[in-house]
Design a protein that fits this description.
Radius of gyration: 20 Å
Structural class: alpha/beta
Order of helices and strands: HEHHEHEHEHEHEHEHEHHHEHEEEH
CATH superfamily of the largest domain: Type I PLP-dependent aspartate aminotransferase-like (Major domain)
Number of domains: 2
CATH architecture of the largest domain: 3-Layer(aba) Sandwich
Family: Belongs to the class-I pyridoxal-phosphate-dependent aminotransferase family.
CATH class of the largest domain: Alpha Beta
Number of helices: 14
Protein name: Aminotransferase
Keywords: Aminotransferase, Pyridoxal phosphate, Transferase
Helix content: 40-55%
Distance between the termini: 47 Å
Pfam families: Aminotran_1_2
Bound molecules: pyridoxal-5'-phosphate
Strand order of the largest sheet: 2-8-7-6-5-3-4
Largest sheet: 7 strands, mixed
CATH topology of the largest domain: Aspartate Aminotransferase, domain 2
InterPro entries: Aminotransferase_I/II_large, Kynurenine-oxoglutarate_AT, PyrdxlP-dep_Trfase, PyrdxlP-dep_Trfase_major, PyrdxlP-dep_Trfase_small
Shape: globular
């Protein structure tokens, strides 16, 4: 008998739904990845760098040119000067950054506050570090943080709080006022922050992303994580980065160098080159994805699903209570895939304690126009 360190972890719903979509031929709007390619010059650059022989280990902290590009972007977008050598680390995906940040500072018995619904990578990483996640529900409806509940949950063991904005799965955005409130509540505590900002460029309707990088009091204790995979439509590249003050970066790098040592070399060369030549790519992303959200939502106005348009990310939540109130969301997602050919993700899987009676599924709209039209047609026919 193996004494599992993660007894509650099985195959994730993302893998299961993608497999079911493949088996049944359903349109896969479940897992969060585009069904279109990344920018051609970026793809071409990878081939060139592979052929030029950039195929050996990259520096442990990441290619200097790419770290410099990240620092330049952060300065341009958030007005913050970070040191590319001391504060930026390139990682194999945001996932590795999240894992290493948690391992670097969480000790046995520490508590980590996460807000549900939450991305599934946080809890296992905390458990493996010997810590315990304290799951607090976001407000129903708008998915904002209840700061009173947060304040009540703080204990002498609380060592970290994890924020995710724009938020997967709801698309909700944290505001600058939220960050000020958090800073005031934790000012006197020895508490770290993990700010998961992988959807930082996917913010709609003229809103601006409130990055923890631009909040000096919070940044002083933060790991801020982002993902090139999300930003450049290449999720399979699993390349991301983490920005943290020098002392925290140093601790994170101690872990990172033994988890993976470095990210994939030719991808880093290609990303550095593309970022230098196409800084406008990130500026165009909000309009690019907002057009997809609006196309999808306009078409769904003719359906029996109820929804509020996502303020950020590339996910849209749909309330199906007018269609199959008898089904829990996992059964609804299975039914929708098998009977109507559209795969989605049930929102309850993002909760430790699912909300009774909640009838929400998540669909990814990072898809070509024809895929979105096709999916909407199927959903409107229900
Ligand atoms: C909130 C959130 N954080 C992190 C990640 C992981 O990013 P990466 O693919 O770069 O590891 C994802 C991917 O879906 C995500 O949704």
């Amino acid at each position: 008998m193996i004494r599992s360190k993660l007894p509650d972890v099985g195959t994730t719903i993302f893998t299961r739904m993608s497999q079911l979509a493949a088996q049944t031929g359903a349109l896969n709007l479940s897992q969060g990845f585009p069904d279109f390619n990344g920018p051609q010059p970026l793809l071409d650059a990878v081939g060139r760098h592979v052929c030029a022989g950039h195929n050996q280990y990259a520096p442990m902290t990441g290619l200097p040119a790419l770290r410099q590009q990240v620092a330049s972007k952060v300065l341009r977008l958030y007005g913050v000067q970070v040191d590319a050598d001391e504060e930026v680390t390139i990682t194999p995906g945001a996932t590795e950054a999240i894992f290493c940040a948690i391992q670097a500072v969480i000790h046995s018995g520490d508590e980590v506050i996460v807000f549900d619904p939450s991305y599934d990578a946080y809890d296992p990483a905390v458990t493996l570090a010997g810590g315990r996640c304290v799951h607090l529900p976001l407000n129903e409806g708008d998915f904002r943080i209840d700061w009173q509940a947060f304040s009540d949950a703080l204990s002498p063991r609380t060592r970290m709080v994890i924020l995710n904005s724009p938020h997967n799965p709801s698309g909700a955005l944290i505001t600058r006022e939220d960050l000020d409130t958090l800073a005031a509540l934790i000012a006197d505590r020895e508490l770290y922050m993990l700010s998961d900002e992988v959807y930082e460029h996917l913010v709609f309707d003229g809103a601006r992303h409130a990055s923890v990088l631009a909040h000096p009091q919070l940044y002083a204790r933060a790991f801020v994580v982002s993902s090139f995979g999300k930003t450049y439509h290449v999720t399979g590249w699993k390349t991301g980065y983490v920005i943290a003050p020098p002392a925290l970066s140093a601790e994170l790098r101690k872990v990172h160098q033994y988890v993976n040592f470095c990210g994939v070399t030719p991808l880093q060369h290609a990303l550095a080159e593309f970022m230098a030549e196409h800084p406008e790519h990130v500026d165009e992303l909000p309009a690019f994805y907002q057009a997809k959200r609006d196309l999808f939502c306009d078409l769904l106005e003719g359906s029996r699903f109820r929804f509020t348009r996502a303020p950020g990310t590339y996910f849209q939540l749909l309330d199906y209570s007018a269609i199959r109130p008898d089904l829990g969301d996992v059964d609804m997602a299975l039914w929708l895939t098998r009977e109507h050919g559209v795969a989605s993700i049930p929102v309850s899987v993002f909760y430790q304690q699912p909300i009774a009676g909640q009838r929400l599924i998540r669909l990814c709209f990072a898809k070509r126009e024809e895929t979105l039209r096709h999916a909407a047609e199927k959903l409107c026919a229900i």
